[in-house]
Amino acid sequence: MTSLSVASSSPRTVTTATVTPSTVTLIPALTSTSSISKSPNPTTNLNPPADTAPPANTSLPPSPAPNATKQMNPQANTTQPKPPIITSNTVTPATSGPQPQQCSYIVTHILSGFMVNVSMDPTTTNYTINLKETGQTIKTINPTFNQSFHEVKHLKPCTEYVLNLTFTDSTGQEKPCGAESTNTTLGMSKDDVQNGTCMSGYVCYRSEWDSSSLSTSYNIPAEQCKSDNKTFCIKPRYNDICTDLTTTFPSENCRTSFNLTRSITVDFLNSSEINQTASTKLPAQIEPKLPPSCTDLTVGYTCHEVGKSNTKNLSDLKPFTDYSCTGQVQNGNITLKNTAAVSFRVDCDFTLNAKVISSTNTSIQLSWNTSSKNCGDVLPHPETLSYVCSCSHKERTPKGKHTADLKGSVGTCDVRELEPFTQYHCEVQTKYNGTLRPTTGNTVTQKTDVGRPEEVTSLHVKRTDNNQISVTCNSEKHSNGLLKKYIATLSNDGAETKTLNSNECKFEFKDLSYSTKYTVEVIFCNEKFCSKPKKDSAQTSYNIGRPIIFVVTILIFSVALAVALYKIIQSRTSRSEDGTLELNAIYENVPRSDDIRPTEPPTESSV
Length: 607
What we know:
The protein is mainly β. It is 7% helix and 37% strand.
């Protein structure tokens, strides 16, 4: 503790004044002017005026605080004797009656603040110090005490404070004790600062002074320790690890400052702050970003598959698998700490560059060359890769089958049993360990060649007349080519052959033989091929028209003949009847038998 004291060989002279009880006058010690220097080194004028005479009634100031014998220069941090700061009030009643309580105080410098020594009536028990930094209204200190000595500490160095003291008198009223004074704290030295411990990963200093203004060369502000308001800490930057950190202890009012340097060892490294970048391709890599000055540190990684306990090195990691990797920060062979876990997974980006080698009317042959930016390392190991080839058409039922012939990253396959003359969308899919994986550049389109048309169905052959046959079939079949033509051939065991062509499966065979069995064969053709023939048969009926005509003719002839005969007969009958009449006439003229004698019948000549 440092105090202000007066050291002089001449006798001390105190000037007092007599006032009424309602008036309080500040009587300075050792000078005719009551003032407190605002400089860091307050001084008191020890030479009183020549015309000052000792008063009749003198009130002596209180004694200095114990051991308050040294003054610290806040600028040079040197020790030199200084007179005490004394504020004294002497109250003298103008008339007889009870005198008011008298109060005075002395402010003395101590480390990190002031000592206030109060001289007061013994009946006063409570004093209040009001202290604030000059020009500031934020921080006001209001300690209340009931002793003669009180320390106000943890102030800023080289800083001017305004101080006033009040007391509570016997009537319970609060009254000022002496005049308001302005005082400047001492300077700060390295001896006033010790290393502190408060927050892990921070550089901490402890001091009785208010050190909130300290900073580093890159202007990182100090943080007050929550558990100790006399400790302030600074968080080193990540790149400060493995270097020396210099902290400056300045004051905005002090003209000088000093530096303290601490070595920032690797113990300050927070493993969760290490930036770790995992690669997106194989072979797996994780790049930790260590402080650049920590050249002796290395990080080795071990990984395990998520959900499993067996560990793997980075070089053993496989694609399409989730891993968790932890790094061991090492200095040589000594592991210092572990990093935060890093999630790692690489998905291969397979590109096949598929193309068509050849095609027929029932097959398409594909080839591809596999590449991968992320997983080029796995391509030399085809045992983990397989492929599925397929060709499909939206309008026809897919019938594609596949085979694969792999040679490292180059492969071929032949998709068979396809439909002729059909546009196909062909795809090669990649499998890794039996599971399909996303693939690009794996599709092509190809049209198969002209092939044999489909065989006709629903063939119907029937007789539509005695000597006429119609033929129909299903016309919705695929010709498997550009041309679409139906050919129907009719035959009766080679004796008679007829052929008809049509774009539709609809034919009429006329003027055939009666009562004849015919065979009809229908094929479906394009520009190159014809389908297998489809056969059916039908038989013509008897020609009933000719017998009818013959019968009619016979009937007509018979009728005509009958009519002719009838007429002939009728004609002869008529003649016979005429002859009979004549004979009857003759017989009527012939004499009776008894009159005529029998005679000979007439001869033919006579008739």
